[in-house]
């Protein structure tokens, strides 16, 4: 019987069931959170019917609104700053000619991905307090810009590598100067990747907790820091609702970035 | 583009990261050799006290007494980070192999599903496990409902729950690099092996694993480094009672107000993590030839 079926190395018995279990492990806890967020009972674990009331309670909570406002302002500033810096950096790394220092530059830009978050958090705290900088939101904007740079840079660099230099060569052959070449050829081709990078930076900034917690002061609390404070006090339906909102925002943005990236490849 | 213009374009990124990340790291190294100010911050004189604190405690008469409690926290953190790495490897390798075996369209969907958790807030992902594991949580509720237990099992606030949270957080970091090395596998190798009567186990040991190894190594670094300094899983799922380095560092800047000790701890963590990354990239370069 064994020889009747042709050998198919792409099929390992039991592996699809195993993989399904791992994906269940990834997503079931998130699903449970979302279900609880719609539970009308204050006792989180007892199901008492479907309700939006905890979302209404969250929307009417002034402290949550303030924290959300801070988070969005910081994320917008950090996104614009880090994307601009990352675009220039990606073009230099992919199109520039450097005799030395390319490795060092790459390593430096990857630093925010390598150094543990807690270390970044406390060293940034030490730095700002050593300089006597107590500017609340402004400090957070700087800190967020720093760790958003590599996230914005990666998709742009990947796109530059994929599209190669032929179109830019063609532009140069037609006597376009460097600035017009950038405006008319490189930038339009790069725009989808820049948008994807910007969205990634925005999500990373919006979700950051540890660095924000150490760097923020009274009055510059961000949403994740506020949510953490709520969690420390215990499991409540409000925490479930606000967590669900943040979860939905992340998923929508990341899916958008991915779709933009996909269109980018087809074009 | 000439070197001058290239440097001009890359300068903002290097300056921002240099000033606001590398400089603070160096400043922290400096702080680790200072004396703690009880109101936060540091004062003169310069001392090695922060590093001595890893193994000794100052007694009332100012003599040093051996006290391994901080060293034990460091060892426990390393042990948990290593356990996390090993579990992620065992769990993640088959998933990566499964994805490689799928059609391109399905691969894209599965890869998105593996990547997505990375972009979801770790705070929220960790909190989900409180909902499941706490005394009134889903797991205890289900077990009680089934009549298996009458009193809730202490599922939360132990090494097991911390480990679970760490694996949950970092598993995608293991699957993705293994996938990207396995993706390049040459199907003819496997078919040839089969034609030569190799068993599935032999194909795995002789063909798949050697190809997966660089990816597994990369994944191990990507899991170990952040797991070592992790804060949220030990804090929320460990209940803050069982300290790990991450929470110990954070405490020095909040409740304990011992900035030099916190700076010394983070200096040590950074040195360990950077060393791991450097060794890894050296190894990767050697394997590429």
| Percent in strands of chain B | under 5%
Uncertain regions spanning at least 5 consecutive residues of chain A = none
SS-derived structural category of chain B: mainly alpha
Question: Number of DSSP strands of chain A?
Answer: 0
Give average pLDDT of chain A, whole number. Answer: 88
Largest interface: A-B, 85 and 90 residues
Helix content of chain A: over 70%
- The CATH architecture of chain B can be named as Orthogonal Bundle
Write the H/E string of chain A, N to C: HHHHHHHHHHH
CATH class of chain B: Mainly Alpha
Poorly predicted sequence stretches spanning 5 or more consecutive residues of chain B: none
**CATH H-tier superfamily of chain B:** MetI-like
Compute the CA-based radius of gyration of chain B: 24 Å
List the helices and strands and how they pair.
The complex is a heterodimer of chains A (267) and B (289).
Chain A: H1 15-37, H2 53-59, H3 62-95, H4 102-114, H5 117-131, H6 137-163, H7 166-173, H8 178-207, H9 210-215, H10 223-233, H11 237-266
Helix pairs in contact in A: 1-11, 2-11, 3-6, 3-8, 3-10, 4-6, 6-8, 7-8, 8-11
Chain B: H1 3-31, E1 35-36, E2 42-43, H2 49-52, E3 56-58, E4 64-66, H3 69-100, H4 104-119, H5 122-133, H6 138-145, H7 159-182, H8 187-195, H9 200-228, H10 232-237, H11 245-253, H12 259-288
Antiparallel strand pairs in B: 1-2, 3-4
Helix pairs in contact in B: 1-12, 3-7, 3-9, 4-7, 5-7, 7-9, 9-12, 11-12
């Amino acid at each position: 019987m064994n020889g009747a079926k042709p050998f198919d190395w792409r099929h390992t018995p039991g592996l699809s069931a195993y993989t399904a279990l791992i994906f269940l492990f990834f997503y079931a806890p998130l699903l449970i959170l979302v279900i609880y967020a719609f539970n009308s009972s204050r006792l989180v674990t007892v199901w008492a019917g479907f309700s939006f009331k905890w979302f209404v309670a969250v929307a009417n909570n002034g402290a949550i609104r303030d924290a959300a406002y801070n988070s969005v302002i910081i994320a917008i500033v950090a996104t614009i700053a880090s994307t601009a810096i990352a675009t220039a950096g990606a073009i230099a790394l992919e199109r520039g000619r450097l005799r030395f220092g390319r490795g060092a530059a790459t390593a430096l830009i990857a630093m925010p991905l390598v150094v543990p978050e807690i270390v970044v958090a406390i060293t940034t705290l030490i730095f700002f307090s050593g300089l006597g900088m107590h500017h609340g939101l402004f400090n957070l904007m700087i800190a967020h810009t720093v760790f958003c740079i590599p996230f914005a840079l990666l998709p742009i660099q990947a796109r530059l590598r994929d599209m190669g230099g032929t179109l830019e060569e063609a532009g140069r052959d037609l006597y376009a100067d460097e600035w017009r070449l950038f405006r008319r050829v490189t930038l339009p081709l790069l725009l989808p990747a820049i948008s994807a990078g910007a969205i990634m930076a925005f999500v990373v900034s919006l979700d950051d907790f540890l660095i924000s917690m150490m760097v923020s002061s009274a009055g510059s609390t961000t949403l994740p820091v506020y949510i953490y404070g709520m969690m420390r006090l215990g499991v409540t339906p409000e925490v479930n609702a606000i967590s669900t909102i943040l979860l939905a925002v992340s998923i929508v943005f990341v899916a958008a970035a991915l779709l933009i990236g996909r269109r980018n490849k087809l074009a | 583009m000439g070197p001058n213009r290239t440097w001009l374009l890359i300068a903002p990124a290097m300056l921002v990261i240099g000033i606001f990340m590398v400089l603070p790291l160096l400043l922290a190294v400096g702080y680790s050799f200072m004396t703690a100010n009880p109101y936060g911050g540091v004062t003169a004189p310069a001392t090695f006290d922060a590093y001595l604190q890893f193994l000794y405690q100052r007694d009332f008469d100012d003599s040093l007494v051996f006290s391994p409690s901080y060293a034990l926290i460091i060892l426990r953190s390393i042990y948990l980070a290593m356990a996390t790495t090993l579990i992620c490897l065992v769990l993640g390798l088959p998933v990566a192999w499964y994805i490689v075996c799928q059609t391109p369209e399905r691969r894209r969907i599965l890869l998105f599903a593996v990547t997505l958790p990375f972009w979801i807030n770790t705070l929220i992902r960790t909190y989900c496990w409180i909902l499941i594991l706490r005394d009134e949580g889903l797991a205890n509720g289900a077990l009680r409902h089934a009549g298996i237990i009458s009193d809730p099992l202490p599922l939360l606030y132990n090494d097991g729950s911390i480990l679970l949270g760490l694996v949950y957080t970092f598993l995608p970091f293991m699957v993705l690099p293994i996938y990207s090395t396995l993706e390049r596998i040459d199907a003819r190798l496997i078919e040839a092996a089969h034609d030569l009567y190799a068993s599935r186990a032999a194909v795995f040991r002789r063909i798949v694993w050697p190809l997966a190894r660089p990816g597994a190594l990369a994944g191990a670094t990507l899991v170990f480094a952040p797991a070592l300094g992790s804060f949220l899983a030990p804090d929320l799922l460990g209940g803050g009672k069982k300290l790990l380095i991450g929470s110990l560092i954070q405490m020095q800047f909040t409740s304990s107000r011992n900035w030099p000790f916190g700076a010394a701890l983070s200096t040590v963590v950074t040195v360990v993590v950077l060393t791991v990354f450097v060794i890894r990239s050296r190894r990767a370069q050697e394997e590429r030839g």
